[in-house]
Amino acid sequence: MKKVILDVDTGIDDAYAIIYAIESKQLDLLGITGVNGNVPIDYVMKNTKKILKLIGNEEVKAYRGASLPLLTEPNHEFRVHGKDGIGDALDHITVDDEESDIFAPDFMIEQAKKHKGDITFIMVGPLTNLALALRKEPRLAEWVSEVVIMGGLVTKAGMGNKLPNAEFNIFADAEAAKIVFHSGLSLKLVGLDVTHKTFLTRERMEELKGTKYYDFIVESSEVFRGFSKQKYGIDGCALHDPLTIGVAIDSSIVQTEKHFVEVETQSELNYGQTICDFRNIWKQEPNMEVCLDVENEKFVTMFIDTLKQA
Hints:
Blueprint: E1 2-8, H1 12-23, E2 27-34, H2 41-55, E3 62-64, H3 78-81, H4 104-114, E4 119-123, H5 128-136, H6 140-143, E5 146-150, H7 168-171, H8 174-181, E6 187-190, H9 192-195, E7 199-201, H10 202-205, H11 214-232, E8 236-238, H12 240-249, E9 254-259, E10 261-263, E11 274-276, E12 288-294, H13 296-308
Parallel strand pairs: 1-2, 1-4, 2-3, 4-5, 5-6, 6-12
Antiparallel strand pairs: 7-8, 9-12, 10-11
Helix pairs in contact: 1-2, 1-12, 4-5, 5-8
InterPro entries: Inosine/uridine_hydrolase_dom, IUNH, Ribo_hydro-like
GO molecular function, one term: purine nucleosidase activity
EC number: 3.2.-.-
């Protein structure tokens, strides 16, 4: 079973990703690391612990990570995720404030060293924690088997969700993304242009009726679905982060190609843009696998079936 660390900025789709990762029974989840992103780090930690309590798996520990991006001011997405980050759907669940003393980047280094060549990092938030870990221990590039990243936008210019050409996770800390992209790690990029094909519609949510997660999925997604209806005319929520879990479990659901991808950190218009050199104009060796397409209906069904069996 693949050993993984899941790095989150727990908003709604992060919550679904945590549920999917644990309920799939196909990943050995060593721990969850939290990072500032969709919501501030205090919310991230509280939301993560609430989700673990909802699942009934509080044995998995959450580790507090970066509360700020490396250089820029923090950005949050309450308009998509609601005022608490998970659509106020778990107000009835209380969690304590107890946390590990281990800083998330240090936990990543510790586990990578312990499981050299046999650990995968799944990153579904800004890449600040991993960048900090790499700055402290560059040998991570040798120790980690693969890093699967939800981030970026490579084939659909103008279709970003933070700037026209920028996806939120990369925009939230583009300097961190640049460090990761140039680290020598084995990277797989699951971008917005692919994740946006994986909508869990309100209609398909009804397939979960009578199951453990139905109420949470419907209630938590209300704000997200309202945003999607306004922006895309779809009553549903894209499974951005759960798809990244799906790729870590079964990469055959996506089509990938190896390319060199750079991150823009200077332009006001394009800060956080992920630029994929499809034609090798820069004459650089590929630094990652880029996801270009997904069997979207197959994946959404996989996601629903996993939650049904919980």
